[in-house]
Amino acid sequence: MLDYMIYIITFAVGSILGLLYSYKQHGEPFVAVTKINIPFTVVSIVGWVLGFCSGNIILSAVGFLLAGFVMGERPGYGRKETAIGLVIGIIAYVLLKFNAMM
């Protein structure tokens, strides 16, 4: 039970930090960038893979912090990066669980 509370708190902190960072970087009132941000994509992939697959409380918390950072950006930013990271994280989780079953 305590594990989940740590994950929720770190995800919320990451979301707040991502929002603050995003407002500092982008001053325009609406989404003007449509291309994928490669560094944020890497951060999202690392975050979701760590969150799902690490098996360690601290590494999972760091993963959810990173995932929350990318997901918590201003509306319209980080949505593609989050989707890519989430899909790759789920694929890695399924592959690891499937490999453990064999």
Provide a brief overview of the structure.
The protein has 102 residues and is mainly alpha-helical. The chain has four helices and no strands.
Describe this structure in words.
The chain is mainly α and 102 residues long. It has helices at 2-25, 38-53, 57-71, 79-101. α1 runs parallel beside α3, α2 (38-53) packs antiparallel against α3 (57-71) and α2 runs parallel beside α4. It is flat.
| Element string (H = helix, E = strand) | HHHH
Shape: flat
Total number of strands: 0
Derived from helix and strand composition plus strand pairing, the structural class reads mainly alpha
Biggest β-sheet strands, sense, barrel? none
How far is the first residue's CA from the last residue's CA?
Answer: 30 Å
Count helical runs.
Answer: 4
Strand content: under 5%
Give structural attributes.
102 residues, mainly alpha, 4 helices, 0% strand
Q: Layout of helices and strands, plus pairs?
A:
Elements: H1 2-25, H2 38-53, H3 57-71, H4 79-101
Helix pairs in contact: 1-3, 2-3, 2-4
